[in-house]
Amino acid sequence: MNWYLGVLKKYAVFSGRARRKEYWMFFLVNFIILLLLGLIEAALGLPAVLTFLYTLAVLIPHIAVGVRRLHDTGRSGWWLLLSLVPLVGIFIVLFFLILDGQPGENSYGPNPKGA
């Protein structure tokens, strides 16, 4: 839960670097929350208003942690726009997000692992 809250504390911070663990833990907690909200709304027969509002609230932190994750691999955050390319774009961005970060300092800051 600390990884999730840490990303929310850096709500719109697009500079610096983010570890793989930080990105994927945030992604996992978001997925679980969206799943629970969807199940609750479906069980109560409600429209997906809560799910939409939650998604809207975490959109900027999700983009920000994605940009910082790409910075950790030595890429510009603009590479996230590649996910808008149909069929192949999301897989290329996913590959970049899965890669290990560059060891040592790079042009985006010091290594978040501290090594």
What do these coordinates show?
Helix 1 (2-9) crosses helix 2 and helix 2 (20-44) runs antiparallel to helix 3 (49-72). With 115 residues, the chain is mostly helical. 18% of the residues are buried. It has helices at residues 2-9, 20-44, 49-72, 89-98. The chain is 58% helix and 0% strand.
Tell me what portion of residues adopts beta-strand conformation.
under 5%
Order of helices and strands: HHHH
Helix-strand makeup class: mainly alpha
- Return the average pLDDT rounded to an integer: 93
- Oligomerization: single chain
Q: What's the N-to-C terminus distance?
A: 24 Å
Characterize the biggest β-sheet.
none
List the total number of helices: 4
Poorly predicted runs: none
Give the C-alpha Rg: 15 Å
Helicity range: 55-70%
Number of DSSP strand runs: 0
Overall geometric form: globular
Core attributes:
mainly alpha; single chain; 4 helices; 58% helix; 115 residues; globular
Explain briefly what this protein structure is.
With 115 residues, this protein is an all-alpha fold. 58% of the residues lie in helices and 0% in strands.
